Model the fold of this input.
Amino acid sequence: MSTQNTNINSREIKDIILSLLKPWIYNESIDAKPENLSLISDLGLDSIAILQFILSIEKQFHINIANHELDSVIFAKLKKLIALVEKKLNDTL
Done:
């Protein structure tokens, strides 16, 4: 299921991203505040997992995330990644 609709809100983006993260979520308590989830410290994603995850986001949302946009700030909190995806979708309008 890929998303081509650019009229998507941040809640829908969050839900889609969380569904893409399911293979790496082992702790059910993470769902309490997913916006504050750290992809590295909370989920322990390594460089290969991050690459797979970013590629799945790009495919799902039909966007391209440049290497210079991927820094530790983006992975520090899920809400930062959601904001980046939302910005990318709005830039394509």
About this structure: Residues 10-91 form a domain with the Non-ribosomal Peptide Synthetase Peptidyl Carrier Protein; Chain A fold (CATH 1.10.1200.10). The longest helix spans residues 47-61. The mean pLDDT is 84.
